[in-house]
Each structure stands twice: as C-alpha cells, then as structure tokens.
Amino acid sequence: xxxxxxxxxxxxxxxxxxxxTKVLVVLASxxxxxAETFFLMSDFDSPDALVAHIATSAQHLATTNRFQLRRGIxxxxxxxDRASGTVVxxxxxxxxxxxxxxxxSQNLGGxxxxxxxxxx
Length: 120
What we know:
single chain, alpha/beta, Nucleotidyltransferase, domain 5, 2 helices
C-alpha cells in the first residue's frame, strides 16, 4: 500500500522584539501576523535562559499553526554589531558581547537570524 506524501508546511518568519520589560515573539507569513505571544523579561536571570524561552515560544507558535520557521530577526535595545549578530551592550538586559543571532539560530535549528537596534 502506497502512503500519501506528507503535507508540506508553509514557511514563516519569526520576529522578536526584546524590550526593557517584555519580549514579543511573532510568527509572520506573506506579510501578515499569523500568531504572537509575549512574556516578561523579569522571569529570566541570564541571556541564555531568555534565548531558550524565545526559541521554545517560536517553535510552539510554528508547530501549533503548522508552519516551518524560515528565518528570524530580533530587535534589541542597546548597542549592537549587526554584522556579527552580537549585542555589544544592553545594560538593562544583562547583555554584554552576547552573540544573540548565533544563539537564536542554534536554538531554532540553524535558521538564519539577524539582529537590529530596536530604534530601527
């Protein structure tokens, strides 16, 4: 008996807005918001714990809404090095020379990730 091919999942982007008090994680596809969630910054004591929770949240949104993550971008308040994907300094977040783009990419299965200053 021949099996039907598995349904191909649509691709979506993950957009992360890291603020001073909360983090917004958005799933977007074809220029529209598919789903979103947020959580408080005060719940995390390290950048690694924050990244792990962002990744879990993004994966949950993708799985629940039947999307495959394609790429991501995060907006961060502070000084960043866009080329290297590093948060040079974000004092209120506890980030200092933190490779945010690489950490998010690693925690999300290797999808390409960029970061930018939240003012942009």
